[in-house]
Amino acid sequence: MKYYVVDAFAEKLFEGNPAGVCVLDQWLPETLMQKITQENNLAETAFTVREEDGYHLRWFTPGGEIDLCGHATLGTAFILFRYYETDKDRITFQTQSGPLEVIHTDGLYEMDFPAYRLEQVEVTDEMEAAIGIRPVEAWKGRDLVCVLDSEDSIYSAKPNQEKVLNLEGLLLHITAKGKGYDCVSRTFAPKMAVAEDAVCGSGHCHIVPLWAKKENKEKIVARQASWRGGTLYCRQQGDRIKLAGNAVLYSEAELLIGNLLGWNQG
């Protein structure tokens, strides 16, 4: 089985967020996809199969399947455009979150994702204890988004992973207005067995609507302030978010799991 590692939202190797990409002829048992993901030990591994209505896509973290993942979608589209659909500039994936389109244009890969609806919630002592800094605002969608007072606070924050586990929301995003970017953020996902996500696409489906409204701007240039770093070029269009970035191929391999399924390894 072909397996690739792609640095997504990256301009060069060892930047952005590495995603595993498995291109399948047919679906594997869910338990096996989870074991492959745990063996890969990346934040997400994507599995894609071409069916009659196009490519279907699923994402797994070491802690389980997730309903939306930006960087692994970008990584999968990058591989398909490069090796499997070389004459195309547009791919639509069927996913748990509905159809997701990726367009290869102007040297970038632009994804069309649903925006999460955000509800402002009370800032609590538990949030302050988990992050180590008291947020000035808090918002809840699928994930918890905490707005901090400055970009410097984003870089210096050292969240307590055990306390983050007790917060509401699947993931925790901390964000602030940027100096050289419209906003900066970091993402923590201990509930999915990922301490810090290097660049989180689905997180920006929370973060971009927030800053687009605050800044009264349709276009947002966002920087994920992880140790690897990554830049996302974003646009809000109604209840959809356009996320664009680049990708770099790190590795290409063959997963030797055919004996588990009775396949001939050749």
Question: Could you name the key traits of this structure?
Answer:
alpha+beta; Diaminopimelate Epimerase, Chain A, domain 1; 7 helices; 18 strands
Q: In CATH's first tier, which class of the largest domain applies?
A: Alpha Beta
CATH topology type of the largest domain: Diaminopimelate Epimerase, Chain A, domain 1
The proportion of strand residues reads 35-45%
Query: Mean of residue pLDDT?
Result: 95
The structural domain count equals 2
Cα distance, first to last residue? 12 Å
Helix content: 10-25%
What Rg, in angstroms, do the CA atoms define?
18 Å
Classified in CATH, the superfamily of the largest domain is: Diaminopimelate Epimerase, Chain A, domain 1
| Shape-level CATH architecture of the largest domain | Roll
Largest beta sheet, briefly?
18 strands, mixed
Low-confidence stretches: none
- Number of H/I helices: 7
SSE order, one letter for each helix or strand: EEHEEEHEEEEHEEHHEEEHEEEEH
Structural class: alpha+beta
Global geometry: globular
Q: How many β-strand runs?
A: 18
